From TrEMBL:
Primary location group: membrane
Family: Belongs to the EamA transporter family.
Matches recorded under PANTHER family: ACYL-MALONYL CONDENSING ENZYME-RELATED, SOLUTE CARRIER FAMILY 35 MEMBER G2-RELATED
Residue span, EamA domain: 21-156, 165-295
Alphabetical UniProt keywords: Cell membrane, Membrane, Transmembrane, Transmembrane helix, Transport
Gene of this entry: rarD
Coiled coil (UniProt feature): none
Keyword Lipid biosynthesis: no
Location in or out of the cell: Cell membrane
Source superkingdom: Bacteria
Full protein name: EamA family transporter RarD
Membrane-topology annotation of the record: Multi-pass membrane protein
Length: 307
């Protein structure tokens, strides 16, 4: 998501969840859940131009954070590693595609599709674990993935549509998480390098947009211009909150809190933005929620047995 609840290497609080951890992590997911209001306010700006602003201002803000933490040695070390560079190029392409698709979804009145996509993310990650990492599923995980597949199949058969946006968001973010998990670099440095690697193509795209159609940002009304300048803060602050909070709570709690954002998207899409929710689409969401309940319950039971 938006934004990006990355699978970080977390140090679990020895005594379980702390109040500060719950507050910080919950705030991060709540901010991601508010993203549609921000991007809807920028509906007059082309989605590609919005993403260009996210890249530029996020790079600048992350550079300031890395400077404050004295982390440039890790940045240099990552760039010197050929294998790590290749991995970062792959995650860079995936996160750029995910950002663009999300902005297109929200500004194109597809908030419910974005919600469905991020509800599907954990289940896509499970499926990728089986297909790529040859992991074995428990019976509860098999049932959860089967229910998710049934939900998508029902949409295709009953409504005659393939939820392309939802599937693209889920698969692109699932692949991003899979690759990111295997990169031996901190999430902060990885995100900075991903944004930095996007700067050259972003500059080229900005020139092309300016020559072909003109850029909206420089001529926008003050409110829109300020919102574009805040793109870096909007992108980075939830990630920093997540990084600080996730170290203070259990991984299982993070797994539960991650549903805050897509749940907010669902209710915003229906109640605030007035997107249509026909019975079959609602039934698909119900199946996804049941799948997530199975998946979460299975993980909770296995964690208790291992404790």
């Amino acid at each position: 998501m938006a934004g990006l609840a990355e699978r970080t290497t977390m140090t679990t609080a020895a005594g379980g969840d702390t109040r500060e951890g719950l507050l910080l992590t919950g705030s991060a997911f709540a901010l991601w859940g508010l993203y549609p209001f921000y991007f809807k306010a920028l509906a007059a700006v082309p989605a590609l131009e919005i993403v260009l602003h996210r890249i530029v201002w996020s790079s600048l803000l992350l550079a300031i954070v890395i400077q404050a933490r004295g982390g440039w040695h890790e940045v240099v070390g990552a760039l010197r590693d050929p294998g790590l560079r290749r991995g970062l190029i792959a995650t860079t392409v995936l996160i750029a595609a995910n950002w663009f698709a999300y902005v297109v979804a929200v500004t194109g009145d597809q908030v419910l599709d974005a919600s469905l996509g991020y509800f599907l993310c954990p289940l896509v990650s499970v499926a990728l674990g089986v297909l790529v990492l040859k992991e074995r599923l428990t019976k509860g995980q098999v049932a959860a993935v089967a229910l998710a597949g049934l939900a998508v199949l029902m949409l295709i058969v009953k409504l005659g549509i393939v939820p392309r946006m939802a599937l693209f968001l889920a698969i692109s973010f699932g692949l991003y998480g899979l690759l990111k998990k295997r990169l031996p670099v901190s999430p902060l440095v990885a995100l900075f390098l991903e944004c930095a690697l996007l700067l050259p193509p972003a500059a080229a795209l900005a020139v092309w947009l300016w020559l072909e159609h003109g850029l909206v940002g420089p001529t926008a009304e003050p409110f829109t211009f300020v919102l574009l300048l805040l793109a870096g803060v909007i992108t980075v602050v939830p990630l920093l909150l997540f990084g600080l909070g996730a170290r203070r709570i259990r991984l299982s709690t993070v797994g539960l809190l991650q549903y805050i954002a897509p749940t907010m998207l669902f209710f915003e899409g229906v109640l605030w933005f007035g997107e249509p929710l026909n019975p079959w689409r609602l039934a698909a969401f119900v199946l996804i929620w049941a799948a997530l309940a199975l998946y979460t319950g299975d993980g909770w039971l296995r964690a208790r047995r291992a404790a």
